[in-house]
């Protein structure tokens, strides 16, 4: 007598949810779960808002996104196109090259002109690592990397009122300082800022004869820490003016640099052109100058 044993076969199902390895391996086109499969979505909507929502059974069961009936009814040709990143970067390059972003920053200075404290001005440099190289990029020994340098000038409260251009990282801070200071002081005067009689704080790296002459020509008092390496013998005659109490207030510029470092595009440079990198700084300077106007009083 021959006994035929029935071979156990795995059940065939049409859904991939419970038996992912024992199915017909075909995607589910449309499946409506049972009543027990529905889960509460946690939406607390009014009757009017609930009527405008069209909930698909699968969206409720599996937590998918919910779309409104109004959005689904709008034809594709009427919907606005999303702005691409190419368009944003195109306008950013255009406005950086033609000086539009610089004028926005200058307008922010005039907006907060009543809040500025020009009793003393602070000058210091800020290096940024340049990962992809570009214009005005060179190796900096102290940073052990290729960097770019910029020299912003802040007031007594940390607002950026002037700045130099982009300088390669291999140069010292006093490189081309005379034309840079002339341009910075000239731009502040054109904006209507009264800088006559202000103290100009800078560290010993900026202690040059040309820098002091430019300060005197613009009626600014240089409060620069004397660099002892500039002379082998002590200077004869009257000592140069230096007030340590006023010089300590130069630390306010470090706070402004900390605000600048919050912008990732300025902390590490990826722009190859100086105009684009300087335009990003102008945007950051604008936000730093206007940040207290939008601060909420708690």
Features:
five-stranded mixed β-sheet, globular, single chain, 11 helices, 12% strand, Nucleotidyltransferase, domain 5, alpha/beta, 298 residues
Provide a brief overview of the structure.
The protein has 298 residues and is an alpha/beta fold. It contains 11 helices and 10 strands.
Structure description:
The protein has 298 residues and is of the alpha/beta class. It folds into two domains: 12-70, no CATH class; 96-293, Ribonuclease H-like superfamily/Ribonuclease H (Nucleotidyltransferase, domain 5, 2-Layer Sandwich), CATH 3.30.420. Helix content is 34%, strand content 12%. It is built from eleven helices and ten strands. It has a five-stranded mixed sheet, sandwiched between helices. Strands 2, 3, 4, 7 and 10 form a five-stranded mixed sheet that branches. A hairpin with a 5-residue loop joins β5 (152-154) and β6. The longest helix is centred in the last third of the chain and has 17 residues, at 274-290. The radius of gyration is 32 Å and the shape is globular. The model is unreliable at 12-71 (pLDDT under 50).
């Amino acid at each position: 007598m021959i006994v035929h044993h029935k071979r156990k076969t795995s059940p065939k199902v049409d859904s991939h949810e419970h038996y992912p390895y024992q199915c017909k391996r075909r995607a589910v086109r449309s499946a409506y779960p049972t009543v027990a499969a529905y889960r509460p979505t946690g939406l607390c909507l009014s009757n009017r808002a609930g009527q405008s929502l069209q909930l698909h059974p699968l969206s409720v069961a599996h937590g998918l996104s919910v779309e409104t009936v109004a959005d689904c009814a709008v034809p594709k040709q009427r919907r606005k196109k999303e702005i691409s990143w190419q368009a944003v970067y195109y306008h950013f390059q255009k406005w950086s090259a033609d000086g539009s972003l610089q004028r926005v920053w200058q307008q922010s200075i005039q907006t907060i002109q009543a809040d500025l404290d020009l009793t003393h001005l602070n000058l210091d440099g800020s290096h940024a690592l340049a990962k992809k190289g570009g214009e005005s990029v060179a190796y900096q020994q102290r940073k052990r990397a290729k960097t770019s340098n910029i020299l912003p000038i802040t007031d007594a409260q940390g607002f950026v009122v002037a700045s130099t251009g982009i300088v390669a990282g291999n140069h010292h801070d006093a490189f081309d300082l005379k034309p840079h200071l002339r341009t910075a002081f000239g731009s502040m005067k054109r904006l209507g800022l009264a800088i006559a009689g202000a103290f100009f704080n800078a560290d010993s790296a900026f202690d040059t004869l040309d820098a002091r002459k430019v300060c005197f020509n613009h009626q600014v008092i240089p409060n620069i820490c004397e660099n002892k390496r500039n002379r082998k013998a002590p200077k004869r005659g009257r000592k140069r003016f230096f007030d340590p109490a006023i010089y300590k207030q130069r630390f306010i510029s470090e706070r402004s640099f900390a605000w600048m470092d919050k912008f990732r595009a300025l902390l590490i440079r990826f722009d190859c052109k100086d105009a684009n990198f300087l335009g990003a700084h102008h945007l950051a300077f604008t936000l730093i100058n206007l940040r207290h106007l939008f601060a909420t009083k708690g």
